[in-house]
Every structure is written in structure tokens, then in C-alpha cells.
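Render this sequence as a predicted structure.
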Amino acid sequence: MKKKICIITTSRAEYDLLKNLIIRVKYSKNLILQLIVSGTHLSKEYGFTKKNILKDEIKISKEFNIVKFNDSPEDISNSFAIAVNKFSAAYKKLMPDCIIILGDRYEVLAAAYTALIHNIPKIHIHGGERTEGVIDEATRHSITKISNFHFVSHKSYKDRVIQLGENPKNVFLVGAMAIENIRNFKPYSKKKLETELKCKFKNNIILVTLHPINLDKKSSSQTIINLLKVLKKYNNYSIIFTSPNQDTYGKIIIKKIKQFIKKRSNCLLFKNLGNQKYFSLIKISRAVVGNSSSGIIETPSLGVPTLNIGLRQRGRIAAKSVIHSESTFKSINNNLKKAVNLRLKKIKNPYHLDKIEPSNEILKFLKRQNFKYFKHEKVFYDL
């Protein structure tokens, strides 16, 4: 009997990481793909990235909108409550043998906890990581405790998941999902990229993605103000912004960026680029700037320096090509100068494991694991 594998995606970045696995499950003879689509995929404000899924000819089993409010704590909490109700209804209809979730967003926590109530086995990808400056830190570890099986990106993260009381037999080291995308990536030329994005680049490019610091509203506002103040000096660069996540206090960042680019012909803002254009853009940039995990995990494999600003990624293991900066104007100013002038030799990416394709390792697990006779009770594994 074929196993029903329910994969959940709620954002553009998450889908890009899961895409190879989704395709492998889709074409597996012994598995049935169920795809639940929600979150910012269905929001025009965030690029309506459901269209990317349809373009990839992936059948959507269930979709529902939960992004109906603003970005205050009350609004995010209301979205969380809606997500719990919607995931519950979806599980009742689809009756999956297991769910697969990735990362640390509040929508993923809602999906995980609802599956716990429904007694559905949960497979979590990218657990054990540290990002101490945001609520994602607590959310990620909560998802780990709710989940039954874990696929992690670094040995230190495997150790941490086990430290959280998870049985080592259920924790698998496979490396970062994004590295698999980069291995198979063929970059656009600069000219092709200009055609795709309908713009003309200067000789030098800075790529910027700044997400909110959702533990502190003031920090998000002050960080974007300081960063934009520094970027004013880079008139001879093309400065490409990508939109932040739908997180608490994120709209202040979007507002400030839009005000900034109105007065500057060398600046552009994109809601969603997709893997091909995003990686191609990194490849021709002098630096990737902001506080996105992509600057830590993916960018080193593309041979480009990263300027990581503030607390959002604090605690995450990073390559030597990552320059860490405080959120002050002085620190950003000094460290951005270092980043754009840094000439890298071969960089060892700590998330790269030779000869391992994470999506294939997870697929092999799905094929051999018998979910029908799975024991739902969890015993805390003491060190």
C-alpha cells in the first residue's frame, strides 16, 4: 500500500528548499505526494508565490489563506489560530501517513502541533540550529520536541537535537537542503539576468535582505535606518533589495525601503526572485547584506562575502566569508567596506557534506519507514 506523504510549505524560501524533495516524492512509485500550501504563498503583498509551485507542475492537495492581518503580535497570533484550525481540517480530509515540515516559522509550529493532536508522525528538517535574536529560536526547538524524526544540517545541530531529548536513532545528518540546489545550479549571465529582471546593473552590485528582529520593534526600525544611511554612500553600486518575511514588525522595513528607492535610480526592490535569479544575482554581487539565513548557509558556496547584521542569526555556525556586524551605523559602515573589498579564495561551507543529497536521503527514509505501526509516545532520551 502506498504511503501518503504530506509536505507543508508556507513561504517562498521554504518551498525552494523543499522543491527537490517534493519532486522526488511526486515521482516515487511507492509514495503519494500531498502538498499543503499556505502562508505568504497566497499573499499578493509577498509575491503570490503559489504561481511558482504551479509553474513547476506540482499538484496542490490543499491550500488556505491565513495571512489576513497586519504584523503586530496580536495579528500574528490571530493568523496562528487560523492556521491551527485550517491544518486540522486538512489533516482530517487528507489522512496522511506523515507530514514533513521545515524550519522555524509560526505557521510550521501550527502545522506540527496540530499533527501532534491528530497522531500523525512528524518529520522536521533543519532543527537544532540557533538564531538567538528572534522568536524563531524558541519556535524551532518547540517543533523539534513535537516532531518524531529529524534531518539536520550540521553535526553540532545533530548533537543539540539529541541534547533536547531526541533519540539518536531518529536524528539524521544530511547537510543543508539549499546546498543541493546550488550543486545543480547553472547561473544566468549578467545580461540574461538584466533581461529577466528588466533592469540595467552597474558594474558593482550589493544584494540586501533584511528581516525584522521580532523580539524588539525598535531594533527592526533602527537597523533598517542605519543600513539605509550607509547605503546612501554607494551610488556607484546597484543595490537590490528583496522583501523580508511576514514576521512581527516586518512592514516598517518594507516601508523604509520603498521610501529609500523612490529617490534613487540605482536601487530596486523585488518581492520574490526564485532560486535561479536569486543565486545568479548573488554570484555577480560584491556582497550579500542583511540578516537572512541564506547569507550564512548558501552564499559561501557561491564564493561571495556576506555582511550579517545584528542578532537575528546569532549563534548560527558560519563560514569564514561571513562578516558579523552590530546594528549601529558605525559598525555597518565599517564592515560593509570590508565586505565589498574582500576577495575570497576557496571557502569551506560548513553545511556542505560531500556526496550527500539531502532530498535523496530523506526519500530513502520515507521508503523504508513503516508509519502504519509507528508508536506515537515519545520517551525523553537522557544524555
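Summary. The longest strand covers residues 3-9. The CA atoms of residues 57 and 231 lie 40 Å apart.
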